[in-house]
Amino acid sequence: MKNFYKMIVLAVLCFGLLTACSEPPKPENTLNKYLTLWQKQDFNKMYEMLDSESQKQISKDEFVKRYKGIYGGIEATNLAIKMKAQKNKKKDDSENVSLPYTVKMDTLAGPISYTHKMGMKLVEEKDSKEWKIEWNPSHIFPEMKEGDKVSASTISPTRGAILDREGNPLAFNGEAYEVLIVPQELPVNKNKTIVPLAKILGMSPEEIEAKLNQSWVKPEYSVPIKKMATDDPKIHEAVALEGVKSQKKETRLYTLKEAAAHLTGYIGPVNAEELKNLKGKGYSSQDWIGKAGLEQVYEDQLRGTSGGTIKILNSKKEEKSVLAQTDVVNGKDVKTTISSQVQLSIYNQLKGNVGTSSAIHPKTGEVLALVNSPSYDPNQYVFGLSNDLRNKWANDPNNPKMNRFKYTYAPGSTLKPVTTAIGLENKTLDPNKEFQIKGKTWQKDKSWGKYHVTRVSDVPSVNLEKALIYSDNIYFAQAALNLGQDKFVAGLKEFGFGEKLPISFPFGNSTIGEEGMSEVQLADSGYGQGKIQMSALHVGLAYTPFINNGNLLAPKLDQEKKGSTVWKENVISPETAKLINDDLVKVVTNPKGTAHAAAMPKLPLAGKTGTAELKATKGEKGKELGWFVAYNTQNPSLLVTMMVEGVENRGGSHYLVPKVKKVFEENIK
């Protein structure tokens, strides 16, 4: 009996398998597979699913090339394709079916979506039946027929200007002369034009030849060689040469040139890597993009949004339909807090030196200037940078391309007012207490070995006021030791050390080096050596509590950005702020003060000089960085921080005092 039941079960299973084996394939399964391949853009395998008639109409290479060309040209992304559910579906036993599907994608001209039907045919191959796709051009877009083309075009937005606080342009869309060569109009000996033109343009003859040998060039075409400023008198020499022409062309221009190069930055043609990273954001290989400075920081705002149109054209190149269209949105201007006058004034004082400087409004935190020297002319990037000039900048030991104002340096004695503030707040420093110090060197005890703290002036008795006036390293080394590492480090962090400056421009964070700080390093840190590092802008900001009742101001670069002017409230008490401010006034007014050369009865200043010595090893003489921070005390409106490298044989920080003084004379009336 058991065997009888087993036979029945086996018979039922066999019947089911036979029934399943004889059941015809479902077109839905084939279509789903085809649509999955389509979404993956696996056009080779899609082609293999076409029926023989479709493959006669279009070759595999042409099929793949067509899809890739169209999708690449329209910048198709986020492709989503699926079969559409059918309502009241009827059983269809025919060998031809048509099933609906939907396509969605994002393109350079906006989203495109459509619903269409896919024709399918049941064919017999190798003793089996399977469904094949009946392809035609309407599957790419329903409006397409054989012979039609897809046209995609973009409209680049007009780039916004970068403006100073008065609305004057720092970077704007102006005009330049574009120098062109028409190859067929060159003399028989083309070097009669190319060699002198290369000299006029600051290029090599080989660079000009390379432009004339580009694959798209034809004898009758005008080939762009380089741009020149409209006020450059050499343009007349250039166009006088046989075969050379010029035309005015819209060009990005930088009005302050070298004086603001690292601040404004420059734009340049988008490269392949950038284009890959920016996929889906409307950039094309013909676009330009911010490469450095504010041009890069505010790229999204300055650039705007490209417009685009995707059309179907018939064989006569007539428009059949518009698949997608997006209007262009021009870029917005960026109005900065920068003063062109202050920027130029500081650059003229720094020019010829290696250094950097910042200027802020000490009551609002507005950034008035960010300056570097040496510098470069950013206009050369949009005019067409020659290989010679590129190599000159790259091989210059003073590195004119380096953006020094965003980097950090040892602040030297400019940190002493900050050390003072921390000591006063922690009550480890008594401003009236006189320290008896003999000689110009000092060490805590013999555990320091041969290392001694060195000061400039031998002042036997020193209190806080004298220590700031004479800039006494020994006094502030002792002040840091009396605080101890924990309180000193905590105090510096109150002044923003270790934090990102709250500003759009990417500045380096000021550092303390508290990890593994030795007692000697703590002492050195008290007067701005050790491992202390600050940017010029942060040094200036660190002085704002002395002018604002103890509040540390936030730097502001975008004039239209809303927000508090205060970065950190009540960093020090108003009493501490006043005491330090009064002493900084004496650093300038006292004949013994290190900044006395900046004294002006009609324009009183307060400030602090500083010299930081950079040594590879202890005991050797190193390169010196000179610093000077100053602000006007009557209705404070300008605070300048300047740093110059290599002042060891130029009077140290005293070298900077007349330079900063001149900036105030030129800008405070």
Automatic annotation (TrEMBL):
Residues 1-22 form the signal peptide. It is found in: Membrane. SUPFAM superfamilies: beta-lactamase/transpeptidase-like, NTF2-like, Penicillin binding protein dimerisation domain. The keyword Membrane applies. It comes from the Bacteria. Keywords: Membrane, Signal. Residues 155-316 form the Penicillin-binding protein dimerisation domain. This is Penicillin-binding protein. It comes from Fictibacillus barbaricus. The lineage of its organism: Bacteria, Bacillati, Bacillota, Bacilli, Bacillales.
